[in-house]
Amino acid sequence: MASSFTPIWLGNLPHDPDKLVQAEKDLATVLAKACADMGEPVDAKDLSFRFHTRGSSSNGQGLGFGFAWLPSAVAQHLVQLGRLTYTEDADFATVRESRGAVPPPPAAAVEGEKIAVAVGASFVAEEFWADFLLALSSWQQIFGEARVAIDLRISQKHGLSELGHLLKQRRSLLRRFPAVILWRPSNLLGAEKRVESLIAAARSAEHVLIFMQVKESQTEEEHQATHDFQAGLRDVDLCVVGWPDLVTTYPCAASNPAAAACAMLLRRCTTALLGRKIKVFVSDCDHTLWNGIVSEDGVHGLKFSAPYLELQRKLSELQKAGRLICLASRNSSAEDVLSVFRDRPECVLQLQQLVAWEVHSGAKPESLQRLSTKLGLSLDSFVFLDDNFFEVEDVSRRCPEVLLLHVPQKEEDFKALLQHSWVLDAHGTQVTREDEQRTELYRQNALRRAERDRHPQLAEFLEALKVEIDLRQPTLGDQSRLSQLCGRTNQFNTTQLRLSESEVNSWVQSETRYVLAAEVKDKFGDYGLVASAFCSFTTSSLVVDGLVMSCRVLHRGVEQRLLQQLAETALARGKAQVLVRFRPSSKNDLARGFLARLHAWSSCPDVSGGGNGYSMECGEQNFYFQAQKLSTLEAHHLQDFSTDTAGDAISRERQVLSWTNVVDAEDWMVETPDRNWTLRAASWPQLLQRIAVMGPDIPQKSKACWLSAGDGFKMPTAEELVPLGQTVSLGGLMGVCSGFALKKVGKFAAGLFGALFCFQQALAYQGYVTMNWPKIEKDLTELLDMNKDGKFDAGDINVGYTKVLKVFQSLTQCRSMEMVAHRARSRLAVLCFLLTTAYGQFLRGAGDTKVVVPIPHGRHVALSCKGAALRLQLVPAHGRPALDTPMIDPSVPQETCHEVDTSAERGVSTSAGSMTVNPAGELQIRAKGGLLVTSSLPITGDHDLVFKHHKGRLLGGGANSPSGMNLSTPKINPQVGNTGVYSPYYYSEDGYSMLCVVEHSDVNRYPANYELKDYGDTKNVHWSFTGLWDCYVMPAATLKAGTEAYYTLTGRPPVPPRYAFGFIASRWGWTDRVYIEDTLQRFRDGKYPLDGIIIDFEWFTNETDYGYPPGEGKPYYHDFGFNSVLFPEPDYQLADYRLRYNVHVSGIRKPRIGNTKLIKELDEKGWFLPNCEPSGRSPPEYPGYACGRNLNYALPEVRNWYSDSIKPLLDAGMSFWWNDEGETDFFTFHWWNLAEKMAQEKTLPEHRFLSLNRAFSPGMSRLGATVWTGDVTADWSWLLHTPGTMLNWVLAGAPIVSCDTGGFVGQTTADLLIRWLQVACFMPVMRVHSEKQVTPHFPFLWPKASDTIREILELRYRLLPFHYSLAHSQRATGNLWIRPLAMDYPETPEVRDVTTQWMDGSILVAPVLKKNSTHDIVLPPGLWYRFDRAIKLSQQAKGLALGKVLEEQEMLTIQSTGKVLKNLFVPLKEVPCYVRPGTIIPTSPVVQHSGDIGRFPLEVFIFGGQDGTFALVEDDGWSTRYMQGEFAATSLEWSDGHKTLSWQKSGFAAQGFIQIMAYFISVEGTVQKSAIKDFSEAGSISFPAQARWTEEVYQ
């Protein structure tokens, strides 16, 4: 719209939408005539109007007013008249000038430019095209009236066989333009290969695609073909419109599909490509997102019916597409509203998807304005949804630029809103990485604003942010983002450059042009690609044709670095000048202001004759810079602009802004045109600080000082500032005095408190008093818990600090130096409190109940507690602290430790039991009830400890893969090695667990061992130690209780990310990028589920370091980087693999260094392990090649350095680590994982840490570290030992175990691979691996076995909800997910030594481990179901005939006597799995990756005969927020008497199931299937009491 056009306000307009359309035409005619009469001729079609409506423009009611844009003289004349008659019936509109904020005029179509949309079809039908072309004429007229120029192009070649080819052919219409493919189900029949080709072509298509069904499926075959076709397109980024969706949205499709096609084109294409750029959706809550009112009905009284959930789903999809979602509600409590998202799992819109909210009793327009300020986005990019008509009208009146959606109060009217409100359509635009991260980016900006408040000086702020700017030329993967950046950026877009992806590509590939892109990150996160310069060259200059930068990085030094780099590029190409073109618009004053200030700084000579160093040509303002001078520009020059005089070059109006508006302002003080100064400050202390710093620079002639404080107010004049100065001085003096007094009193109080505390601890140590620390901690927590979240942390300190400030602020109207003093005092008080608390915690730890008892030979025994465990130490008379070890969890909750003192014994006790010692030095360990569990022989030496052994075995010491057939560990020498790990721990069936800690040297053997010795009449357990030792004893009556106590002491494992529960493909020998991407594509094309890949040495280097001499490396070896053969574009590739294939990538890591320079540098620092000789190692893992190069990760400085070194790899997109050959020291893997976790916390602090390690030490699993069983051989004997190794390692301290499925060393066979995969399917992590010379264990490389392997993988993914819930239970309770049968059935002697079967939750797994497909099996007595057969039966299209007698191989139940069944034959496709009556197994339908979990109904298998329960747990699958309670727990309960499955839900799940169905298997072996039911809230499913197998569906 030309600048000479002025908006006028029109009132008294019709409300009826039909009359409003006619009024627009009449007004255009009358106003065109008025313009002509006044000598300002304007064509009626060129006049712009904007009429305001309630609801969407397509089906809403007019609000009676709007705007028209007219030549200024005509507008002035009509305002003076005050009214305008626009019809022959004397209808008139009131006219006045526009007041306040005026929305921009609607964008008109550019003359001569059209959006071309190509149309193709899977069929050839002339009669259809006749209908189609007939409909085009009417739709083209509608396009014209909507001022949308669209060109519908019909592809000349039709038919299914040509479509795939045309989508790939660069010159075809379907390749060059956004394409719409029309298809009929009948064309899909018998054309499987052509359909697959079409789907593959659609995956690689560059443009927005719409696949639209234009005929209803008539037969069952057509229904199935339609389903398969849509399923194949499900994970492609396009829109698939089925016939039911089409006829529901556009009823005309039933009679005229061609007309519906045009409607869909208008809806999907023109809106997406030309529509208003909406960035923010603000929604009301009550009766908008749910049915009910939070403050009246309560959180759990709200109802979530389908329309409300569908609106939430729409908003959720928009958030994932890059829009920001906010709330604006008039509820009194924000916490109540947010609790709905946390506590009501049926909410589709998730709490973490919200970027901001305004929940208070204030008006909605004010809330919108505050949100606009917070987000830094103008209101014309907002959409507001509300059910209240008066709220909508209020926003329309006070914020007319906001687009409004009136949510209907009747649920049945929701349908029209959701289907016909185009603004809610998330399809049609390319979603970039920045879109997906946009909500998180805006949250990060909130953290940056807080950082800004802490650093009032801009230079300090930039330094604190640790901004990193990466300038580079764009790659092919950047085209979408650069096009989006040009299209969406207004404020810092120098020429309003708008480029499509193809145009960006032309710029990038042109030899005469130059494009420079900037990626930015700081300590809070990655901004992504946020700036770019599009340049060309003349004979003497580098010309910046467009400089575009996101407002998110304004004043971060990015603009300076861009121009500085462009200047260097100009000099390198022999250009003396840099010319920056500037074309003014209504929104890019910010860019012009920067260029003007930059021009003043550079002091350029006048190169254009303009006198001011810039020229004006045809409305374009060009800035010239000397390249040499510009090349010296740096980020800190921002401060030089603080008080510059370049304001004359910028047209500014004096403005008073709130602090939130200028948080990112580069100028603290700006001179306005009338020579007044605007001083911006967050608060009085900052204002006074800046006056003190900049006082001399403030011009004496300034007439007034403007301060932004809240709403803004005018400061007194210079004369009125005198009494203010006196107030400041007096307040400052009083503040200093009171601060000094508080300091003195505080020191005395802290000292007195400390002395009393020490005295109390001394009394406790001598046994005079016993402190109930849990009660003290509970009471103190309740007292100090300011935010009432149940714990005392930094959040409570912030809340308390804020309350103190509010009190101080209420005492004075002027926040002067007294305010500074108050802040200083409050901070001093907080500091004193923190120091006192820390000191108290230290004293508390040192003052835990400890009993030191003298024993013979001048020795002393110290007995104390750690958690519920009992700690035993041999100590000097004065005692000593516990040995520091990574095996013990430092955060283990401390229980009350009581002293035991009788005439004969002294010791300590916890809730688990007691440990005492008598004067002879004999220990007695008793269970909770006082029952003696075991006792020791007298302690006579410093390095020995002997316990009496009465019965049973020692379990949990670990195993070596070749000898993993036994659970009992009678003799252990703790060490870590390839395929073998042994721990200084055991569980004794006498009834206790024991873990021993010793002083440790840097070797992979642990200097402690034990042995169960049999003397005939007696048995003893002999411990031998080197150096000091501590032993932790945990009385426990069962193996289950003992193992839970062990994991509580060493730390329970966190829940791995959801992708770890899928399938991971690994091999040694990935060759290049093409091989990687071809492998991923073959997995997806073959429908083999996959979630991750692991790449060996070759991902970071092109050679191994095995042949390097001891202590030496190679100068070209890269320890921390990507091999460019496999990863030429690592950032792009890794993101692409996650987004396109839903695959996470990991690479191998070695514990050593291979680069010569690094080896020398680190060796000088003493950072390598000292042990170089392989002698003394068993087995000798490391001959000469690793000697002198293994990092000593036990050193904190090594861990810090290593975490910083691998952080860029995580930044690039590596998801997890595969740690190999770390058996250099007993604790290398632990400290190594700690360093890797530190790196992840720096990069992705909320993401769960995951690693796979070749060995472990106790306590390592609490970091998120998992383990695999080492480099096993592809042989049946190694498969036979795999389950036993897993079970031994689980008991020894590694609860999450995997293996090199198929065998690493040697060539496997198809049968061996299948049987090994069947085992891995029921292990915590399922992964294949192989060495370089053999066939990788990828299913498509084994054609004869591929179908069977696919079935195994599908079973793995079906069990994912079951396994995921077990992992949650394991973390919460310590109850092992994978465990030996002896743990669940201790009274069944036949299973006590079984290692070829195991419990996977409630599933008893009994795989075949022999080449001849036979196995021996033992089932505890009672009824068992064949789970594997039941789940296969449920997948059959048709069930068994009613009354059919099942064959033996089909039977679902078996009655066991408890005896071993030998040499049972099992077909290759079966893996026998058994469950008990009352078992509930939640499963998922088959998906291709874990990210699809929850998209389909939950399928629950119920095995009748007893009541049963299962706790289903769901969360977002990737973050650590579940540790703060952000997860949903659903209790599934089966009542066998009522044949009813019921469920109750609690908590919040970011990704969960919303529908459920169930299969009931009866004791008679029949199967019943339920209907699909809603799972978003509590409910139930019931089955008939008796039935045979049937396809009938029961409610």
TrEMBL record:
Ranges for domain Glycoside hydrolase family 31 TIM barrel: 1053-1366
InterPro entries hit by this protein: DUF5110 (IPR033403), FkbH_domain (IPR010037), FUN14 (IPR007014), GH (IPR017853), Glyco_hydro_31_C (IPR048395), Glyco_hydro_31_TIM (IPR000322), Glyco_hydro_b (IPR013780), Glycosyl_Hydrolase_31 (IPR051816)
Keyword field contains Transmembrane helix: yes
Main location: membrane
GO annotation, biological process: carbohydrate metabolic process
Compartments in which it is found: Membrane
Domain of life where this protein originates: Eukaryota
GO terms of molecular function: hydrolase activity, hydrolyzing O-glycosyl compounds
Residues annotated as domain DUF5110: 1497-1545
Gene Ontology cellular-component terms listed: membrane
Pfam families to which the protein is assigned, alphabetical: DUF5110, FUN14, Glyco_hydro_31_2nd, Glyco_hydro_31_3rd
Keyword field: Membrane, Transmembrane, Transmembrane helix
Glycosyl hydrolase family 31 C-terminal domain location: 1377-1481
Family note: Belongs to the glycosyl hydrolase 31 family.
Protein name per the record: DUF5110 domain-containing protein
Organism this protein belongs to: Cladocopium goreaui
